[in-house]
Every structure is written in C-alpha cells, then in structure tokens.
Amino acid sequence: MFAVKSPRITSRRSTLKLGVAAACSVALPFSLWNAGKAAAQEASQASSDGEEPAVGTQEQPFTFDTLSAAMEKRAAEAYVAPDATLPDVVANLSYDQHRAIRFRPEQALWRAEPGEFHLQAFYPGWVFKDTTRIFIGNDGIYRQHVFDASDFEYRPPLDPSAFQSLKVDGVAGFRIHAPLQRPDYFDELVTFLGASYFRALGAGSRYGLSARGLAINTATSETEEFPRFSAFYIDQPRPSDGAIRIMAELHSPSLAGAYLFVITPGQTTTIETTCRLYPRTDITRLGIAPLTSMYFFGENDHADHEDFRPEVHDSDGLYIIRATGEEIWRPLKNPQTLALSYIQESSPKAFGLLQRDRNFLNYQDTEARYDLRPSLLIETIGDWGNGTVELVEIPTDSEVNDNIVAFWVPETKAAAGQPMEFSYRMRWGLGTQDPTLMARVSGTYVGVGGNAADAKDNPSSRRFAINFTGGTIHNLPDDAKIDPQIDVPSNARLLDSSVSRLPDGGWRLSLEIEREDSQPVELRVKLSMLQRIVSETWLYQWTSTT
C-alpha cells in the first residue's frame, strides 16, 4: 500500500492510486484494490508473526544465513498474529489526516554523512495498522532504530501536541533517497510500504507499478494471503558504496521467509533479490516475484471510455524472454470479467510488465505523466525449472485501481516443511530491454471485423492490426516479402491476413478472425523472412466480451 505520494506526482488521482495499491478485500480474493474498511481489515489480518524479530541487541555478526535459519525455525512454529494495537489518535487517522503526517527531510538517516543514500520513515495509521521495525547494521551488528515523534511534521488539520508524547515501536515503512538526476539532489529511489509491497525508480521515471515479496493464492477459490515484511535489516552505507543492502523478514499464516535486496540506483535501477521460503502449510498457488500494475484503457480497448486522454495505464504489456531466446509480447486489457492467462515456460530468462509507449501525445496527461511510468523486468538467476507465468486482469472502472498482476508459479508445489529458494534481478526504469535484432510490437489495435455496417450482424468477427518496429526489417524496401506465422486455435478461424509497410519504417500485420464458440481465443503471431524469425511473438486472449 502506498499512501504517501511521490513529490513528483501532483494530482489527487495519482495519490489515491498510491494509497489503495495494496488494499485488499477479504470477501473478494481476486481483488487487489478495494479500499475503506475491507482494506483496513485485510491490512490487519495479512500480518507478521507475533514474535520478536530475529535479531535485537546481540553482539555477534548477523548474516543472511543467520536470518534464513531463524525464519526456518519460525516456520516450524504455529503462526501467531501480532498485536496491532495503536494509540487511538493514530489508529483512527483518516486518509487525509495520515497524509498530513510527513517525515522531516532534515531528520533523514545518514543525511549529515557523506554518501549516496538517505532514509526516511512513514508514520503508521490509516490502513497501516501493523508496523515494521528497522534495524541498522555496521559490520554485521544490527540495532533497532526507533524514530521519535519529532522526526515527523504534523500538518493541519492535525494538532501536533496530540502526537508529541506518543511512542510507536515501529513504522509503516520507509523510503530510500539517492541522487538519480543530479549530484546535489536526493530523489526517491525505493519505497517499502504496506504488506510486502515496494516500488523503485530509475532516472527520469515516476512511480507507477509495484512489486511484492510474494503472492499466495492470488486468483484462486481460496482467500488470498498478503505476506508482510515485519522487520528490515539495513546496512549503513559507506561513502564509497554505490549500492545499499537490505535484508527482510517475511511472515504470513502459510509461511515465513528471508529476503535479501541489493539496490543499485541508475538510469535503470537494479535490485538483486534472493528469497528463501519456508512453508508452514501446503500452498495452493505460490506466486514468485509478483508485479502489480494498472491498465484502465489503451489503443486496443478504448471505445467505451469518454475521456479526453487516448490511453491511461501504468503498463501496456507482459513481456517474456523464453529459455530459447524467443521474446513474447502480450498486450494488456481491461476485461469486462476476470481474465486469467497461463503461459507455460521452462526456466524463462525474464518476464515483466513494461510501459513501452513513451510518447506523451498518446496519453495527453500533464499531471499523471503515464509516459514516464517505469517498466519492471524480472531477470531470473539460476534454473527456475518448469512453471507458468500467470497474468491476472481484473475489470476496473477507475485508474486508481491496480487491476493487473503477473507472477511466476513453479510447477513444484509449495509443501509444508520443504524450503524453496529463488534469485532474480529486478530492472526498474524507462528502458529495461536490451537492444535486439528482432522487431518488437509497438501497437495493437482491435475492432469489428468486415464492414462496420455489418458489425451487428457478425459480432463474432474481429480485426486485429499489430504494428512491428525496429530490428533488422526496419530498413527493408517496401516490396520486401515478409511472411506472417499465425496460430489460430480450433475454436476460431482465420478469415484474412496481410502484411503492409508503415510510414515510419515499421510493418503492420492485419488479421481478421472469426470465433466459433464462447471460449477464449488464444492468438499467436510473429513475422519471418527467408525462413528466419524476424520479430518477437505477439500473444492475445480474445474473450467473448472483448
């Protein structure tokens, strides 16, 4: 949950989105965005173990292996929910009141010291009933840092005197600042706030999609769990450090876990991540490296939105690099009913939610600046084995709702007492893809098939226009022969296809497809030339309501 907006996001619309990104409803396990009382209840229930953090005042070096062993031991014990009791004046804060409490920048950790990183904390309250503890380490020795009431500013309509004598053992979360744009100004780099949610920025980008430590039973018939980072162990950065190292405890009723993050700021900010998971119980669906984003409408599904803006989304597609090197692009949609896509893979090289369209003219939003929302690519480290990249698309009628989720589901089920470990590299920024010789999908357009006048008579027909740009085919002559490879499932048939030149040097593949039943139609196309693949693969799920 992100309740405090970035200084570079000025609209209330964007602020509301930050505040409800992780708020979840117990009654609707598929939903990631219900606010209000349900959000507060879920935030309280999806909490950490009630025991003390793994390290306190001990004077021996504390390592990631030490933390992992402590979490494995914790997982062998019964889960105990924490005491989420807060003083009434804190527990009853409204959204606007909570936003009025700001950390004083001059109180940031390490501000008075030379170096590349500062740390600020978030005050508890509103939906943030459970707190997390922050331990600062030097040479492997970690001690809890307790923030004082004077570290925060209490703006109107709050009465500052009501908070000055309060002692809160933990905070709602924290953020790290670093000089991304210029050496004399510390930009927000990464924020950990709410359950296991966190977000990061590369140079020039604005907060958009989020990551989570773990997803448990998302889009299943069971109640979704929201594991929570209950304690962080942060190495105090030295002046010469170009990265900051953070360990974290993760707890939920079903498991305990140990996380290690090494965060390196840059044009593309990277977060090297290792998670060690210790299930207490068997878990129906375990989502590794989950990503959460927003897709309201875009070029392929904007007809029903009366909005001056052509597109509104934080991400416009799911991107996968298979073990074979094949690149896959799956445009996102805002469906009328819950849509689930399962893409089976064997140790994929990468997957992520990207914002490819960087043209401001395609958004026309001077406040939200969706053209500057970061992409997030997960690069796998080691052999992840067989599994599925799962994409969840939830209907939404507002851009404040995060309605897109993507994660990796290992084929090996999480079983009680069976440890699991995954390592991956997260890449956050405006450009997260490496250069390629393959043409990439730059646009997907969907409309009625045949003549517009016949649309009512043939609602089962659709026309698709897929634009490919870049790669080795960019500068080919207009009469070059490019062959489409089109896979249409048995419940649909291809009526027409053609490849034509685009004015900007790209190529367009046009398809007309007719469906033969009400089941989803899974389409798959790519371009070839001289029997060689010259483009990434375009995937699309056409449902009876889209």
TrEMBL record:
<dbReference type="InterPro" id="IPR013783">
    <property type="entry name" value="Ig-like_fold"/>
</dbReference>
<dbReference type="Pfam" id="PF04349">
    <property type="entry name" value="MdoG"/>
</dbReference>
<dbReference type="InterPro" id="IPR014438">
    <property type="entry name" value="Glucan_biosyn_MdoG/MdoD"/>
</dbReference>
<dbReference type="GO" id="GO:0030288">
    <property type="term" value="C:outer membrane-bounded periplasmic space"/>
</dbReference>
<dbReference type="InterPro" id="IPR011013">
    <property type="entry name" value="Gal_mutarotase_sf_dom"/>
</dbReference>
<comment type="pathway">
    <text>Glycan metabolism; osmoregulated periplasmic glucan (OPG) biosynthesis.</text>
</comment>
<dbReference type="InterPro" id="IPR007444">
    <property type="entry name" value="Glucan_biosyn_MdoG_C"/>
</dbReference>
<dbReference type="InterPro" id="IPR014718">
    <property type="entry name" value="GH-type_carb-bd"/>
</dbReference>
<dbReference type="InterPro" id="IPR006311">
    <property type="entry name" value="TAT_signal"/>
</dbReference>
<dbReference type="GO" id="GO:0030246">
    <property type="term" value="F:carbohydrate binding"/>
</dbReference>
<protein>
    <submittedName>
        <fullName>Glucan biosynthesis protein D</fullName>
    </submittedName>
</protein>
<comment type="similarity">
    <text>Belongs to the OpgD/OpgG family.</text>
</comment>
<dbReference type="InterPro" id="IPR014756">
    <property type="entry name" value="Ig_E-set"/>
</dbReference>
<keyword id="KW-0574">Periplasm</keyword>
<dbReference type="GO" id="GO:0051274">
    <property type="term" value="P:beta-glucan biosynthetic process"/>
</dbReference>
<dbReference type="GO" id="GO:0003824">
    <property type="term" value="F:catalytic activity"/>
</dbReference>
<feature type="domain" description="Glucan biosynthesis periplasmic MdoG C-terminal">
    <location>
        <begin position="62"/>
        <end position="542"/>
    </location>
</feature>
